[in-house]
TrEMBL record:
It comes from Marinobacter nauticus (strain ATCC 700491 / DSM 11845 / VT8) (Marinobacter aquaeolei). Gene3D superfamilies: Apolipoprotein. This is Uncharacterized protein. Keywords: Coiled coil. Residues 152-179, 210-280 form a coiled coil.
Length: 284
């Protein structure tokens, strides 16, 4: 079925559904792309993984006179993809077939903004998902091997030590672990809020810097949710997430120099608390 997306289409859909929020992956995809075509940053952020409308860049495309065809919808647990064919893109004589990727957060489907943008830039995407994940894993290993950020490396080492402790200890949570989990959750929340502030207050940031901030916020907030059930495994994973965040934030341009100093200090504090927690575990 082919849709040429104009404002009246959204109006008709809203009238028919009683102004309810789109629910299925295809409905969310349609609402998201309508927002993109209209350059409605607020709506695009609402229907996607963008943490703030300040990160919206319209995929750096011109959207006048673009029409969209929807194809196959594939749902795999909390992930989905919708085959999306766009006609009328600037500089493209033929229709461009791509994929709109979605993730489920709680009860809502959201378009995975940056993965969808990558798919659009790359054209047809028929590669193996397993192959993509393997490549991502190798990229991360390579990045760790080439990094010289001592704070991040030390935090990652402490996380591995905590995982080793978890293997030899009873998983029942002590008051000590609960207390540390609360501290770690507060650090992740404060760091996430600071990243959101940096994103909003730096409109001149490059697309890559906006992407780095957006994706780091998502990881931090997802990991913080995991701390709702505190155990040694989630504590170790949260520490590793913070270490990776430190590496990524270090790659931001000097436009964020003041923020980077603040973020680095928070990682220093996390490192100290982590070391103290491990020492207390050993003495029990």
């Amino acid at each position: 079925m082919k849709y040429v997306l104009f404002p009246f289409l959204v109006y008709s859909v809203l009238m028919a559904t009683g102004c309810s929020r789109p629910e299925s992956p295809q409905e969310v995809s349609e609402a998201f792309w309508q927002a993109v075509l209209e350059e409605d940053a607020e709506a695009a952020a609402d229907y996607s993984t963008l943490v703030d409308e300040a990160a919206f860049d319209g995929f750096e495309q011109q959207w006048q006179n673009v029409s969209i065809e929807w194809g196959r919808v594939v749902i795999d647990d909390n992930l989905a993809r919708v085959t999306t064919t766009l006609s009328g893109l600037e500089g493209q004589n033929e229709a461009t077939e791509s994929l709109t990727y979605l993730v489920r957060k709680g009860d809502d489907w959201l378009v995975d903004y940056y993965r969808t943008g990558d798919a659009l830039k790359q054209g047809p995407v028929w590669g193996s998902l397993v192959g993509q994940l393997e490549k991502l894993g190798e990229d991360l290993k390579s990045r760790w091997a080439n990094q010289s950020d001592e704070m991040a490396v030390e935090l990652e080492r402490l996380g591995r030590e905590l995982q080793q402790q978890a293997q030899s200890m009873n998983e029942d949570m002590s008051a000590l672990a609960e207390e540390y989990g609360d501290q770690l959750s507060q650090h992740l929340e404060a760091l996430s809020e600071s990243l959101r502030e940096a994103l909003k207050s730096t409109p001149s940031a490059t697309p890559q810097d906006r992407r780095t901030l957006n994706e780091t916020v998502i990881r931090l907030e997802d990991q913080r949710e995991q701390l709702s059930e505190v155990n040694l495994k989630t504590l170790a994973e949260s520490t590793a997430t913070a270490a990776e965040a430190q590496l990524q934030l270090g790659e931001l341009s000097e436009e964020f120099a003041a923020y980077k100093a603040e973020w680095r200090q928070r990682v220093v504090d996390m490192q100290a608390e982590m070391a103290e927690f491990l020492e207390n575990l050993k003495t029990r």
